[in-house]
Amino acid sequence: MKNSDIAFLVYQPERARRKNNSFDGNDNVGAKVIIDVLSKNGVSVDFCSVASAHKYKLVLLSLTSTYDCIAFYKAVALRQDWSPAKRKFIVIGGGFGMQNPTVLRKHIDYAVFGRGEDIIYPLVSAVLGGSNSYEHESVMHLPDIYSVKIQQAKRLYDSDVFKEGFVGCGNMCKFCHYSWVRKRMHNANYGENGKIGETYVQGTLTNNNSPEMLFKDIPKITKKYGRIRTALDGFSERLRFTYGKKITDKEIKANVEYLGEFEKTTVLIIYNIGNMPSETQDDRDSLYGTLCDVKPKNRVIAIIHTTPFRASLATPLQYAEVQLNPSMSDLRFKTIVDTPTFLSKHSMSNESNFSQLQTTIIERATEGTDALFHTMCFSSKIKNNIAAKKIRLLSNNFDLKPYLRRYHPDEEKHPGWFLNTYIQTKTLGKIFLKT
Ligand code: SF4
Asked: Is the pTM of this model over 0.70?
């Protein structure tokens, strides 16, 4: 049953996050906000699949991460009704995964960068009214690629579907896309960082069952949690101090032992970043040595989930070299320390270096990337091989250097030259050169 001229596209994600991959199964806050804004303006929104999209005049696309660029392309690129020549509907795309739309430019008409709640209604109205010339500093009319500015929140979102406590982060780690593209703003009731007791806790996305907090704030916890999520973002003290997470080895020992003061087992999920620029085996060994020295009173289980480094656009490290080796997937499930009160293991879902390469290619894509991207998505040889072989197959046929090399901020064109954030690009370059 069709109620509207507009539908949100539901497509299979590249990585299943839950058994139910519908919008109900995944809490896609961004999509819910956009639907809420349109509904408050009297515009109802249906849901569609790639097969039923042609029944609508306008299709909305949510890209929650760079992986969604792969999932969306795989879903539509071989379909006649989505081909640039035959497609009869307009596609508007946005979301946190909208960093570089180059590889999707033939399948999306308007790319919205940053917060879309003040843009979506005027844009939808213009498109449905037949206008082909909507202009906004945060909207790119594809397939042309030109300079845009990431839209910032003018206020925190406050509605029945989503009450926002804060946006952005004051720490500004040099690799963190989130903090460099989302200017800090917080709700007075949330305290400076959002709080339960006296510490920063972001629990809203997990019903407060598994609070997420800064590592340095662990000693502020006053009640027992079964599971806590936090981040180190660097194997060694040297790396953490160079790129932004100023956590000492001494603090790692002290904070894990502090959690061991609470009775029964506490599980700590520690997000980490591997293959940081200049990282060596000495850096990795430094974390293992520190963890071997931790002696909690009650049992603590620390799972280290290491994501490989990405040179994320609109951050100071967008210019950095990307190292693919070693693959963080090789660490999966390896035990670091196992004593009666402390178990630390690497996560079983660490991404491979092929996944790291895929997202790097998308984020650093130029118009010359189309053939490489298509091969990466559809080649059966690529699909059916292990990560190292996949990388070799791609590098045998394509020059991967533009995606992996270090860029100098003064070079004429960085691949993400078109993306401007609330901090001047030349400032990002200066911070990078001083790092
Ligand atoms: S990595 Fe975490 S602490 Fe650092 S700026 Fe980003 S959100 Fe903040």
From this structure: yes
